[in-house]
Design brief:
heterodimer, A: 304 residues, alpha/beta, four-stranded antiparallel beta sheet, 11 helices, 10 strands, B: 261 residues, mainly alpha, MetI-like fold, 82% helix, 0% strand
Chain lengths: 304, 261
Amino acid sequence: MKSAIETEAMQQRANDKPAQHAHAPTEPAKLCLAHVGKRFGTGATPTIAVDDFTLDIAQGEFLVIVGPSGCGKTTVLNILAGLDRPSEGSVALDGCEITRPGPARGVMFQDYALFPWQTVRGNIGFGLRHGTPGDGLSDEARAQRVRDCIDLVGLNGAEDKYPHQLSGGMRQRVALARLLANEPEVLLMDEPLAALDAQTRLILQDELLRIWGQDRPQASRRTVVFITHAIDEAVFLADRVAVMTTRPGRLKALIDVALPRPRNDATRASAQFQALCQDIWGLIRDEAYRATVTSTSEEGGSKR
Amino acid sequence: MIGAADRANRTAIGFALPLALLALWQALGTTSQSARMPIPTHVAAAAFELVRSGDLPLAIAQSLSRVFVGFAVAALIGIPLGLAMGAFRSFERNIDPLIESFRPIAAIAILPLAILWLGTGTSAAVTIVAYAAFFPIVINTVAGAKGVNPTLLRAATTMGISRLRVIRTVIVPAALPAIGVGLRIGMGVAWTAIVAAELAVGAKAGGGGSGGIGQMMFVFYAYSVELNRIIVCMIAVGLVALALDRLIRFVLRVSMPWTSK
């Protein structure tokens, strides 16, 4: 089913890559990356972070990009966010070219990016108070939405704490609540769980799927692009996993994850889950190995 | 409790050296034949007398009022200027060379001009204080505004917050701790500058009473030659500096609750 959506979308784009299957098109893709390339630096040897990256992401899809350190995952996300412009190709949301950041595409940053001078409540309501997502809302409506988001991520009782008083897991919950409070159409998440310990991570993976609404129909879910280097995390969360290769960052494979939803601990224990993890590991093992023995690029260097 | 005993011990050790030095000073002073040797007991008596007469508190109040005015002027110019420089690189490139070329000129070195233009009264002293405090305030504000975590700025833009509004909602609060450091250093140099300025202004005024602690020291030095009183003034200058620093640290801590652990 996923591959059907994918190929339909591929066919919709009038580009020079012929679709492999012929299906009748149904609905256009939510996010379109067409031959996206990104070079850093100029001169004879620019660093090619991303090369010819083409991918369509459907409405309500949970897409996870996985790849070794320095493969340009973050660059792809920044281009989707409008924080970076592609050197080649184009990127569009609902058919409109993305040229700058906007509240329709909310971003959750790897290092939380919480405002240290704001309390939990202030951080979650920041976009509503100062940005366009709060336009047309009364103060009471904003406060109510902040309260709802606090409930949703389970931060009750911590509303008046400052970020430095919170654990890593709680900070990540604040970042998630802040993202949701702005009600973006697309959630862009850059390794949001990477800094957490293994147990907190598993818990937040479950929470994330619950909040995303994995038991709702796909049409009512938000579109998510999630970046991770953890293969099990990718398989657990994703509808589809996009596997990237390093230098230049290219899309190596798109893997459908047909695991039933809602997913839970039983999913992690299933043979199908394990097999998918093995498949993906097989795709990136050589590159991941190389990344550990050579100096990493600017992206990989910033990762812990 | 061991902790309490430990702490008492440490306090005792901390006081031991100053007390020993004081005792040594007293011994040297009483055995010395020189009329220019101040003696701790005499200094204490002079301090008591200067406080009782109200002369010393008045002088300190006069100096403090000038420091606060000059400091406020420096902050009102330095903070907005520093924020603008930190937020707009092109503006910084134009202004920074100017600031850097004035910075090595010590506050006391502009005194001749200040006196010639503004006379020997309060306005010259306030100007010198403002000049001295301006540099640490503006430089730290620029550093704070430029040092804002870029991810915070990116996060704000992804929430649909306009570039201009980001200055007020992100850059200013993110720079506050650095601005606080600038204000603390600025207050320290402001107090140092006022004493120096009053000493020098006093010289021109012929002891004619522009007031303040520096002026008071000048009178004790040039007219009545009272060494013990000069020592009292020096101690008072140090204590006021300490109190000012504590005060500003307290204000900063209370106004920025997110910086305290």
